[in-house]
Amino acid sequence: MKPSLDDLIEALRASPPDADLSQIGPGAWRRIARVRRARSVDAWLLPARAGAVVFALTAGAALGAAHAREAAPRPEVAAFQVASVFAPSTLLDRH
Prior knowledge:
Elements: H1 5-14, H2 24-70, H3 88-92
């Protein structure tokens, strides 16, 4: 015969708790304080990170602009233009 639900509840009530639940709140607040300290350190490093990103973007733009100025202009390819560099008539004259 199976025990009744009331008997099971009484047995559970009489048994000691499995874990000490009194430290759940203070443990949660300790973890929250730890996360807040970590975030404050990250916030302190934010201006340095932003400065590094701005420097990298500025250096990349300056070097890209300098390289673009040094590149030789390429001739425009026009198949039906006589003065085109790649026209067949100019290719035959290069003996």
